[in-house]
Amino acid sequence: MFPDNLKKIRKEKKLTQQYMADKLGISRPAYTAYELGKREPDHNTLIAISNILDVSIDFLLKGRNSIDEQTSRILNDPETLIASRDGEITEEEARELLELILKKGFGKKD
Question: In which domain, by residue range, is 80 found?
């Protein structure tokens, strides 16, 4: 899944393999090996890739956004109560709150 996600996101952002390799300080064939699934990046390289592509590591690895999943869990958990002035909160408001919590409490989301 990671190789496919990596290639798809890179192409969506109209970036070349050479650009990615240059930004990561590796050769183009080394980068290409990530997209082909022949090689896996180490933790620091994975962080760098997520920063270059401006996506979470979770999205790179799994193809989904952990914030979306957390928002969904919060909204669908009957034991969780999040209330605004009128006692209800929209999905967008929950997402914004979660993003704020993650940014303030945990730094960069991944």
Answer: 66-106
Tokens 């909204």, located at residue: 75
* HEC assignment per residue over 48-89: HHHHHHCCCHHHHHHCCCHHHHHHHHHHHCCCCCCCCCCCCC
pTM of the predicted structure, to 2 decimals: 0.59
Backbone angles phi, psi at 32, to 5 degrees: -55, -35
DSSP structural state of residue 14: T
Quick one: 10 and 24 in the same domain?
yes
Ordered per-residue pLDDT tens for the chain, 110 residues: 899 999 999 999 999 999 999 999 999 999 999 999 999 999 999 999 999 998 888 888 887 655 566 666 666 555 555 454 456 667 787 778 777 777 666 544 44
Q: Are residues 7 and 1 in contact, defined by beta-carbon separation less than 8 angstroms? A: no
